[in-house]
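Hi, here's the filled form for the chain we discussed.

Project: internal
Contact: R.S.
Residues: 326
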Amino acid sequence: MDWNQLAQTALTQYNISDARLFFLGHSENITFRIETSNSYSGKAAKFLLRIHHPIAQQSDSIWQQHNVINSELLWLSALHRDTNLIVPKPVQNKNGTFLTSVKIDKTPPLNCTLMQWVEGCQISTQPTPTQAWQIGELMARLHQHTSVWELPLSFVRPKYDWEELQTSLMRLHLVTISDADFAVLETTVKQIVLVMTVLGKTRSCWGVIHADLNENNYIFHEDEARAIDFSRCGFGYYLYDIGSTLLHLLCENRKAFLNGYQSVRLLPDDYQNILEAFFLAAMIHNFAFHASNPNEHDNLLESIPYVTETFCSRYLQGEPFLFYYY
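And the returned structure, exactly as it came back:
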């Protein structure tokens, strides 16, 4: 497949001319940065073009469904309209829709989407405590919006709930982990499901979440944290969203993140115990995501035993671990 040719074809469906394409990468989507001196606004502009075609063909096809992709863009449009957060703003094509179906030669059509480019830089090291605080504040503002946002009737996104967690556990059979490690993960999942059941799905704890706000998907522009790549967003627990981000932060930065979050939105009094459950849930989801890629199996065979021994065993024994080094 000539992805550059497909991208060029997709751009003909937008009011953009004199476009220069820069290939960025291929993971869940194929992405290009688009630079143009003449756009629909008549000014120089940058865009992000996504071709919705995952590199791991075994991955769940739900993420490529038309209404699922469109719902992501509905949330981004609402964030752009309702808040002063800088997020990728979807661009409509000449037909006035967000999704563009494109095919070349005899290949099946693929969905493409275009968004305005968000300026900022990724950080190559751990964030400073101040930056971690800002990331926490950013996430809280995202949660604050979705907790009161009236969802469009057509809004459909995957759920990060107990059913998805159990599905993720089963996907780990793709990797030849030991029976002992799988048993520990299975017991851990049962305990997390109990936590989810007690919480329920009220608007105070459950809503649309980013679900992937890590060092690849937040950037900084003039000391302001900005969220990008909402492609994994879905319905989930706000504490799960937090736990997913804490996976990537050192202990002292986890505390700074939570302080930044609570400067906008308070957490429940018993948040640490619940958060540790969702920290592990996010870890298991992450394992399942990589299990669909055979190239990741060697890494999983090293990391899963470490996680079961270092984190799951402590969680099952009621020993706190979130703010401790191991």
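Let me know if anything looks off before we file it.
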